[in-house]
Amino acid sequence: DGGLDDVAVKGVHGNQVGGYRMPTDDRSSLSGLTEAEAQEFHTLFTTSFIGFIVIAIVAHILVWMWRPWIPGAKGYAMLDGATAAAHHLISLVS
Fold this sequence. Notes:
Layout: H1 35-66, H2 80-93
């Protein structure tokens, strides 16, 4: 046959490893990743993205409890009761 897959592989010190066939990688995608590498990256990316979204939601809830973006008719003075409730809730957590 004489193809590239049949060439004996040289070891680190120049000795012949034998009839070992190099694994063929299918890197024909635009990213240059194999299917397994792409799936691994996708899993890591998805997990990280979901973690980021959860942290962002919690942060927005905490900021809303501290100072809502849309105050009532009396402005922020109307929120004194909500501020006291938020301080009580935070004291329970810490």
